[in-house]
Write a structure and sequence with these properties.
CATH topology: Metallo-beta-lactamase, Chain A
CATH class: Alpha Beta
Structural class: alpha+beta
Distance between the termini: 36 Å
CATH superfamily: Ribonuclease Z/Hydroxyacylglutathione hydrolase-like
Number of strands: 15
Number of domains: 1
Order of helices and strands: HEEHEEHEHEEEHHEEEEHHEEE
Radius of gyration: 18 Å
Number of helices: 8
Shape: globular
Helix content: 10-25%
Largest sheet: 7 strands, mixed
């Protein structure tokens, strides 16, 4: 994948990213920067919008062992369009008195502009935590062929870093960031108040991040789930993005059940922006309850 030197060629880069993700027929509408903030104990949290993908309901992404008609029934019940599936691509900013931490970087769409709306300059980010190395989570690490965040240490699990280095689809990104990556063992505390959590199945070293300040918690669940509708109504349906589909399905079911029981506040980077809310039990499945915290 090439890193292009002009914003005008961003669409071409994204096309390559989409192809890598099995999204060759997806569309990327014009990206609009957005930033929504709230307090979590002593942390300032900001959800940042980067991009949005629109995927046809063709049986190649969600419900790949089921028909588009079955997927359409689920979308229709949620009063959503039945011919397309829309996924947001978002990142999370965690600001403390000592650190400015960015969790994931999107494809490099509107992220920089969203940061500006949050009053943060790229040079102020000192830690970047990566859930996993798919291009829609690490693409924004590089801008014009160079590091986009010059003063940041980039952190991902050691298993995921090994996976990234073996993945030719992200070789150009890996080359740029290699000297700035500091891997960790899944389960380790990676920053004050932030602990990594292994969430298996999506990629070999996929993790989420548990953020705690005082009695308040927020769990960035990465790509445990993708669609705020289909992934919750049918968590046992295979998703083409998942590397190990059976393991991902098991993790998805387990994690959603835990989140519904604990009523824990979460961030889901592919749910409708700002992706902050709760998972609730709804009969034999689950539903999304957006939070009114972010403003």
């Amino acid at each position: 994948m090439k890193i292009f030197n002009s914003a005008a060629k961003l669409a071409a880069m994204v096309a390559l990213i989409l192809a890598h993700q099995g999204l060759a027929m997806a569309q990327m509408p014009a990206q609009q920067p957005e930033a929504k903030s709230f307090k979590l104990g002593e942390f300032d949290i900001v959800a940042l919008h980067d991009a949005q993908f629109v995927k046809p309901n063709d049986g190649k992404t969600f419900g790949i062992d089921h028909s588009p008609a079955e997927v359409a029934e689920i979308l229709k019940a949620a009063a959503a369009p039945t011919e397309i599936i829309t996924l947001s691509v978002d990142a999370l900013l965690v600001k403390s008195k000592k650190h400015v931490i960015l969790i994931d970087t999107g494809v490099g769409g509107a992220l920089q502009e969203s940061l500006a709306k949050a009053g943060v300059k790229p040079a102020e980010v000192d830690e970047i935590l990566i859930t996993h190395s798919h291009p829609d989570h690490i693409g924004g690490l590089v801008k014009n062929g160079k590091l986009a965040f010059l003063n940041a240490t980039i952190r991902m699990s050691d298993v995921e870093w090994d996976f990234a280095k073996s993945n030719t689809g992200v070789a150009d990104i890996v080359e740029v960031i290699a000297d700035h990556v500091k891997p960790f063992k899944a389960g380790a505390q990676v920053a004050p108040g932030i602990t990594s959590v292994a969430l298996k199945g999506h990629t070999p070293g996929h993790v989420g991040y548990q953020i705690k300040s005082g009695k308040e918690r927020l769990f960035d669940i990465g790509d445990t789930v993708h669609s705020s509708i289909i992934s919750l109504v049918k968590p046992d349906w295979a998703v083409s993005f998942d590397g190990d589909k059976s393991e991902a399905e098991a993790n998805r079911a387990k994690t959603l059940a835990m989140l519904a029981k604990d009523h824990e506040l979460i961030f889901a980077p592919h749910f409708p922006f700002p992706g902050i809310g709760h998972i609730e039990k709804d009969g034999d499945h689950f539903k999304w309850a957006p939070s009114d915290k972010p403003k």
